Structure prediction request, 271 residues.
Amino acid sequence: MAIAATLSLSISPEEPMPVLERFRLNGRRAFVTGASRGIGRAIGLALAEAGADVALAARDEARLTELAAEIEALGRRAIPVPLDLGNLEAIGPAISAAADALGGLDILVNNAGVTYGGGFGIEDPAEFDRMFDVNFGAVLFGCQAARPHLAAAGGGVIVNIGSIAGTKGAGLYGASKQGVHALTRGFSREYANDGIRVVALAPGQVNTDMTARVRANPPELSNMLHHTAQRRVADPAEIAATVVYLASPAAEFVSGTTIAIDGGRDFFARR
Prediction:
């Protein structure tokens, strides 16, 4: 009885927030990598539409500037951050500069990623290094660099974009993304005392420049869709909407997990 009484005191509910308000990000400050196109661009726009100010990081400064103008037209601040995510030493200073410019940091989205055409048969060490630096190293160093800024803000959220390829063991690209899923689990425990949640998404096939090769190969695309319950590819906005949820108070009890958003591909096999 004493234990029950103690538990009831420790979990007494606060005044409930209206459900749609739980998805708002008003006044939050976000840093998004790979923001110049595809999923990253959609994430930048979605976070801004939900009320956040956004620092947009990628190599293509012209595209970043164009996106920043769109976001500012929504009434939010947007800061282009020209950054090569393969240059791991540059990530920390870029995040710190963006946090200073925004007045703090509440959300980090590690979205940047690169792929290559082979399975496990990669031959160029430079290509290998590039893929693992961007897909895995940039996530590691991004999380480490963002941690003190998120903690100083009283806590925050890190959303890492992995891939369904990481759960299915699909080549070296999948191995780099499985590393992202593992980092997510580890950092969620390590950062919890700072009030930081760390979560990951594992998208399936999404309509972006990166996946154009698959869409241009009808037999490969047909085979992939044959094993996808929804029988289609995703729009980047669908991934971005899930990022908004994960970054919002609506997901405040979600941490350390990787959520598949793949149209049923991960667990579905059409016979």
In short: The domain at 24-261 is CATH 3.40.50.720 (Rossmann fold). The chain has one domain: 24-261.
